[in-house]
Amino acid sequence: MEENIEKNSNIENNQNVENEVNENDELKLLKEKLAKQKEDLEDKDDRIKRLMAEFENFKKRSDKERTGLYNSVMGDVITSLLPVLDNLEKAAKTETKDEQYKNGIEMVVNQFKDVLKANGVTEIETVGKKFDPSLHEAVSLVQDEKLGEKEIKEEFRKGYMIGDRVLRHSLVVVAN
Fold first, then answer.
1. What share of the chain is helix, strand, coil (3-state, %, to 5)?
2. Which side of the chain, N or C, has fewer Cβ within a 10 Å radius?
3. Of all helices (H) and strands (E), which one includes residue 171?
4. 169-173 own/partner pairs: CB under 8 Å, 24+ apart
5. What is the DSSP secondary structure assignment for residue 1, as one 8-state letter?
6. Looking at the domain assignment, is residue 170 inside a domain?
């Protein structure tokens, strides 16, 4: 009987050891499964972050292209209207006895300039400024000791810009 008790005890010990081994195997499997799921989650998280960054870059690029296209189209339209403004300014400078007519022309010129300004168009500064070939076109050179080197003495035709883009270069006389 003691033998049976001992055998039963050994059997129980063996079963306990087997249960512990099974539990350890299950624990290892669960840990491996958890590690794989963590890795998958990190990969998906990384992909999501990359996609979000790519989308942000796309939005910025699209905005930049849209702004560039808008400025290009506006620039083309405004460039075609600048000779009209030139003629209106000449008409405003012409001597006339009819002051109301002259005031009307000046009002139209001012309104035209306000529309240009509202659309981001600015006049290029000339007289008294240093000559810049990216903004100005020299039509004549003169010697004038009162002015500095490459200083603009006179403007023949106004130049205009929209943003950083030159719509029309200023025609100027450059000193020294």
1. 65, 20, 20
2. N
3. strand 170-175
4. 169/124, 169/135, 169/136, 169/137, 170/124, 170/126, 170/135, 170/136, 170/137, 171/136, 171/137, 171/139, 172/126, 172/131, 172/136, 172/137, 172/138, 172/139, 173/138, 173/139, 173/140, 173/141, 173/142
5. -
6. yes
Tell me if the pTM is above 0.70: no
- Residue 119 token pair: 């659309």
**Domain of 152: which CATH number?**
2.30.22.10
Measured CA angle at 62 (ends 57, 66), to 5 deg = 150
Residue 156 lies in a domain: yes
Does residue 139 lie in a domain region? yes
Tens of each residue's pLDDT in the chain, 176 residues: 566 666 556 566 666 656 666 788 899 999 999 999 999 999 999 999 999 999 999 999 999 999 888 888 889 999 999 999 999 999 999 999 999 999 999 999 999 999 999 998 999 999 999 999 999 999 999 998 888 899 999 999 999 999 888 999 999 999 98
Total of domains in the chain: 1
- Its domain, for residue 139, covers 121-176
